[in-house]
UniProtKB/TrEMBL annotation:
Entries under Pfam families matching the protein: Methyltransf_25 (PF13649)
Classification of source organism: Bacteria, Pseudomonadati, Bacteroidota, Flavobacteriia, Flavobacteriales
MF term (GO), any: methyltransferase activity
Methyltransferase domain segment(s): 44-123
Classification via SUPFAM superfamilies: S-adenosyl-L-methionine-dependent methyltransferases
Name of this chain's protein: Methyltransferase domain-containing protein
Length: 201
């Protein structure tokens, strides 16, 4: 089964309360984006946004240039349906992140829970190159910590510490904030995440 087939199946067969990453309101991501203090015209991309509610709240706050990328067309269909007419204000991209070919740079590159699915060195290097070339201002990265799960949605993942992430992205970015945070899943288990916020050097 390919990655795309796996994720299309997940979003086709499961409700939001049946997947671990669901957040009714992504408070931490919203606060970190607000902390960047960029204008509402700032270009924001949500990597692996799927049918996350982040886009709903960003639209509500008046952000005008939002892009959501996900490998699953079904996930994006769900988000569009939920947003209705508002979905026309968003750029939607169906792509595996390692095959993404951006046509613009982004003031905020936000990724909560996609990066840890890249377990091969080649995939990680491709992602790093994308960030270096297309994240023009801020990088907000949230991924499973070294105290987090070893698998998610039946797939192997790669765990990270703050030091690991700094080591990966320090060529072009300086870290401005970092912390660990527990995420309570809809079925009352706990996953430990590491958050790192980087500013372009």
């Amino acid at each position: 089964m390919t990655n795309k087939t796996h994720w299309e199946n997940v979003y086709d067969t499961k409700l939001p309360n049946e997947v671990s990453w669901t957040q009714e309101k992504p408070e931490t991501s919203l606060q970190l984006i607000a902390n960047c203090k960029l204008p509402k015209t700032a270009k924001i991309i949500d990597i692996g946004g799927g049918d996350s509610n982040l886009v709903d709240y960003l639209l509500e706050q008046g952000f005008e240039n939002i892009t959501v990328l996900d490998i699953s067309e079904k996930a994006i269909e769900k988000a569009k349906f939920r947003l209705g007419k508002l979905s026309e204000k968003v750029k939607w991209i169906v792509s595996d992140i390692t095959e993404f070919q951006p046509e613009e740079t982004y003031d905020i590159w936000h990724d909560r829970a996609t990066f840890h699915f890249l377990t091969e060195k080649e995939q990680i290097e491709k992602y790093k190159t994308l960030v270096q070339n297309y994240a023009s201002n801020y990088l907000i990265m949230a991924t499973f910590s070294n105290n987090g799960p070893l698998k998610c949605s039946g797939l192997e993942i790669k765990q990270y510490t703050i030091r690991d992430l700094v080591g990966l992205f320090s060529d072009k970015f300086k870290i401005i904030d970092s912390f660990y945070q527990d995420h309570q899943t809809p079925f009352n288990t706990v996953q430990n995440f590491v958050f790192c916020i980087f500013k372009r050097i």
